[in-house]
Amino acid sequence: xxxxxxxxxxxxxxxxxxxxxxxxxxxxxxxxxxxxxxxxxxxxxxxxxxxxxxxxxxxxxxxxxxxxxxxxxxxxxxxxxxxxxxxxxxxxxxxxxxxxxxxxxxxxxxxxxxxxxxxxxxxxxxxxxxxxxxxxxxxxxxxxxxxxxxxxxxxxxxxxxxxxxxxxxxxxxxxxxxxxxxxxxxxxxxxxxxxxxxxxxxxxxxxxxxxxxxxxxxxxxxxxxxxxxxxxxxxxxxxxxxxxxxxxxxxxxxxxxxxxxxxxxxxxxxxxxxxxxxxxxxxxxxxxxxxxxxxxxxxxxxxxxx
Amino acid sequence: xxxxxxxxxxxxxxxxxxxxxxxxxxxxxxxxxxxxxxxxxxxxxxxxxxxxxxxxxxxxxxxxxxxxxxxxxxxxxxxxxxxxxxxxxxxxxxxxxxxxxxxxxxxxxxxxxxxxxxxxxxxxxxxxxxxxxxxxxxxxxxxxxxxxxxxxxxxxxxxxxxxxxxxxxxxxxxxxxxxxxxxxxxxxxxxxxxxxxxxxxxxxxxxxxxxxxxxxxxxxxxxxxxxxxxxxxxxxxxxxxxxxxxxxxxxxxxxxxxxxxxxx
Lengths: 306, 264
Hints:
The complex is a heterodimer of chains A (306) and B (264).
Chain A: E1 3-14, E2 17-28, E3 32-36, H1 43-50, E4 58-63, H2 68-76, E5 79-82, H3 94-104, H4 110-119, H5 133-145, E6 151-155, H6 163-178, E7 182-187, H7 191-194, E8 199-204, E9 207-213, H8 214-220, E10 222-229, E11 244-250, E12 253-259, H9 263-269, E13 274-280, H10 284-293, H11 295-305
Parallel strand pairs in A: 3-7, 3-8, 5-6, 6-7
Antiparallel strand pairs in A: 1-2, 1-4, 8-9, 10-12, 10-13, 11-12
Helix pairs in contact in A: 10-11
Chain B: H1 5-12, H2 14-33, H3 35-38, H4 41-48, H5 52-57, H6 66-72, H7 74-100, H8 104-108, H9 114-143, H10 153-182, H11 185-204, H12 220-225, H13 229-232, H14 236-259
């Protein structure tokens, strides 16, 4: 598979202040790539470097096979970009802005603009300054998606959107993937990437800490298990089972953490009358903090996975 | 209007352009309305009592002729100041204002080159200034009869208004260039104000001090009013010098903006 975005030791310093330390990033054609990290890790810096809004102080980047600067307008024609902070002149209506931006892209059919706007329940007749933050963000989404670009670069795309619209957004992203478009989106909220991304890259202090398929992350991740029995049970039977840790028994309720296969735990539980079992979805948030806090170990794990 | 950065820029600023054009023309007509009361021997005698250097410094020589009066009022200080503030605002907003407000990211992520953004906004600034000049010219033409300004004539009004527009363009381009260099609206405005004041002083006071005499030839005001276009008609060389200054500043703006990071 060819790389749509590739950076090697990409670095950006603002004077002495770090924006990006040394980033190696590879986004493959047709995938949804979640770019995760806490605020200040360098996500926005990376994205603005890819768009030639910033000029790197070191390393290289290619986007759709071209250097962001050398690629110029011809390259940006093939991109859709949603800035982390979508700001436009508030005196105009959404219609005016989107028509103008469509013209800059060589013309976007009005029906397509209307289609996306309807889907997001966005009123294009209102002046932008009169809109809520969420509605402004919708305008940002429309201008990023409307020309069906080969590559979508979205910086914190769901900020300000209510949960229902976040679902709509995720549908749009999946449809983009189905249509062969590549999506590169940043977030500091893992749950919003978890359900759509194929792969996730975790950035910390200006470096890539880990890159993994979401599936692998999920498989390797720790689940929280809660088993309700008919009668009180003794914790001893469950302590020491393969993959099981942090066993706590509260009367007839057993809570523990489970890593990897569930076989040992299930077979042991089957010896008692079981009323119900709750398994909490593996949470990337937890994994993220594993990577984020235990830097050294995380690096090794990342190399194993690669 | 929404097809290009140039058209969009004018469209977005249409109200401001209209208000400024009317305001500048209104100032011109109001001053002109006072001319008949200045045009009498008593006033001339009163003016003769002042030292000529002072009158020169205030731009108030020959205040009883129509050209002398308007050259020290509408076209002397207030007109050029308003034109410079109007044009300066256009120039500063074109890059630094947009950038400081965080509006540049969306535009530059589209298939437009940075030089084209600067050039198209500079072109929009030229058109906006031209509109203000045409409105002022028409207003002065309409005031000619009632205000007894027949001595000046349409050609000289047109010439002076054009040169004043070019003066504004120089300072608008300065705001554009400094804004493109720094990305700071405050610094760009500061540069416009500072250079405008220094240029004005260099033109009026420079010639009265031996070792500052040379500064007059560096002043944009000198190329605006030095040839007295109200009395003598279009000063082609002066106008071309102003155009050259503006072109050089826009070129600096383009080169500067292409090279640097865009602020969020």
